[in-house]
Amino acid sequence: MSAGNLLASGMMPESLSASGKSSERLSLPLLQSKMKIDPEGYTTELGLIYNQFISALDLFKQQAAISFSSGACADASISKELGDRTLFLAHVAPFYAKQLSQFPRQLVEFLKSSARSLPFGLRAHVTQALILLVNRQMVEISETLALFMELQTVGDRNLRKLAFTHVIQSIKRMNKKHKNETKNRALQNILFTMLQQEDEALAKRALNTLCELHRRKVWFDDRTANAICMACFHSSSRIMIAALSFVLDYEKIQEDDDSDCDDLSSDDEANPQNAHIVISKEAVYKANHSGTSASKKKKKAKLQRAIRSMKRQQRLSSEKNSSTYYSPLNHLKDAQGFAEKLLSRLQTCNERFEIKMMLMKVIARTIGLHHLILLNFYPFLQRYCQPHQREITNLLATAVQACHDLVPPDAVEPLFRQIVNQFIHDGSRPEAIAVGLNVIREICVRMPLLMTEDLLQDLVLYKKEHQKAVSAAARSLMVLFREVCPSLLVKKDRGRPVNPKARPKAYGENHVASAVPGTELLEGDYNSDSDDKTDDDRDDESQFHGSEDDDDGVPAASDEEEENGTEDEDGGSDDEDDLLVGSDDGESENSVDENDSDLSNDEGDENNSDYEKMDDANDGAEVSNSKSNKRKRSDVDEKLLVSGDSSLRALKRLAEEKFKPQQDEGEDGILSNEDFRRIKQLKAKEAAKRALGQHGFKQPTSDPTKPLDPSKLEAHIRHKLNKEQRLALVKAGREDRVKYQSRTAIKQNKTGGMSNRQKEHKKKMPLAAKRHKIAKSRVEKRKKVDRLGKQFRGRKAWK
């Protein structure tokens, strides 16, 4: 019996007989399991069901055409039979790849031609069957991607979710082990083409798919990021808003978790001197052992603040060096063109203010990330910088993010002045003054050249305001300029700056590193070590000479003789330092033409002259002055070449001095691992000294590459609570409170025994004590009556 006759005769499709086995009836699920176990034994049943599928498909198409022309509804039984056989064949298709080779193509064509007119049940079954075939790798995802994207535009929520999840999971599974760039590029081209189409629904689904794959880091490349960013220029406002939202939501502000920094571990408190945080022993000792208990408590708090400040600075520097921050705007191929096009669209669009705000945020983030110069953007922001403007805090944060050191100060100065004039004046509210001061501080962190001396001194005067938000904002501005440019502050506001001569870099100025960062600290450390060492050597040598004089019985030289010897050295009369010829002291006997006996005598006296010179060199300030007055080596060389009347020892010393700097340069040119470790320790010491000098308080710092949190501009501002928030606070305060009871009820419910007063009443006293108490009470009563006197108090009403 053919498949068409089978359906026409009304035979139930759920019951089929197994060929060659027995005449038992098998349902489709049971037959499916049997065919998976023994595929070759059920080839006839497969052909029968496949013919039924083709007949049902043709019958459904004919009924759909008739119903479209006549308006009659299609038969629901045909749809159910077609859906059941479609799912059955999709499950057994991997076992009969040759017999069902045309089955996937038939499903794809069926969905492409009549997906919108299908009943939702049949459409879901056919889609599930096609997804099953794709998962079994019988169909490539590149062949069905366009179809699944079109299925998402059908007005069926369940089908849209099913198709979207399938596309994401299929591409993710394809790139799980390794990424096939050829396949990925082909799929990306399909989605990019859909994104550029005028069909709003299809472009929206393509954008959602690209955003999801980029968010899951499946397609985490430049092409995908650029395609998402370029969707901001789509003609449809819905797609533009979706692209802007994705870019801004991807940059969710991750606030610096200061609580993690504040909660120090016990190990850090026990041993603050670790590899990264170096605190001087003197500061630790003073905080624990010096002063009163109150002063020690303050010193400990200052020490802990310094440690937290250094930990925060190290964390910020490590995050900056690791460059873990990411934004899709980083991959823009033409950032300047992108910002200019977006600004032109912002200036001409008629969207509501929220959309304009999103456009301004994206433009500001692009300017800050890529250090662009877009001079027309700042006058546009200037029109909205009013205290009564809606979302003014977000707008000011946008203005701050658009500032960097490459922007000319003249372009930002009108905006800067507008913020100062509109927000910071005596007639403004405290909240507006605090926000204005915080904005000025954040702008000056990026562009300190905008601040003038008179303006800064006027703004710092707000530190005496009673409102905490205003005073804290003014103090943070003052602390910033203590480090950036202390000369702009009044002397009493400068505090103890780290570098009193610090100044901001001029516009366009750039410092080029000529050596490894930190080598100057290493050189200073070596110089201090050598000074300490020479001081120790001088002490040892002085002790050695003193003992020698004592042993030999030779008296030590007087101060006058030492001074004379020093003067002789300065005049160039010493045997070792006599490098010049023709001196006025008449010491020509040390020339090259001298007799050998004189040379031998000079060499015999060499040790004594060395010791005398070392003793003379240890005289302190006089010796330093004498060394500063010595002749330059270039003059010495010229005169030495002119005349040959110098001693051999002088020539030898000159040669050693010539070769010594070359050796030092060769040694200092290459830094060892020990040198780098020493540089790290010296930097930690310098940071600890700076933090202790600033009493451990946080310094205002900001990273221009990261988005600015608008809530930081509203620090310490107490907003007015609504009724629900006030009730929540009241209920929170009642949680730990005991139910109110009168004092009598509390006494009655008391279970701990009698009070002391009750015990006094029941205490048995000796007779003498009782008499003394009675007499004492009588005396007190008599004294009270005497004090009051006999006064007329009026007649009582009841008498």
From TrEMBL:
Residues annotated as domain SDA1 middle: 584-733
GO cellular component terms, A-Z: nucleolus
Pfam family, one: SDA1_dom
InterPro entries per the UniProt record, alphabetical: ARM-type_fold, Sda1, SDA1_MD, SDA1_N
Keyword field contains tRNA processing: no
Domain SDA1 N-terminal: 88-465
Composition bias, Acidic residues: 522-540, 548-609
Sequence ranges of Basic residues compositional bias: 759-799
Assigned protein family: Belongs to the SDA1 family.
Function of the protein: Required for 60S pre-ribosomal subunits export to the cytoplasm.
PANTHER family: HSDA/SDA1-RELATED, PROTEIN SDA1 HOMOLOG
Protein name as it appears in the record: Protein SDA1
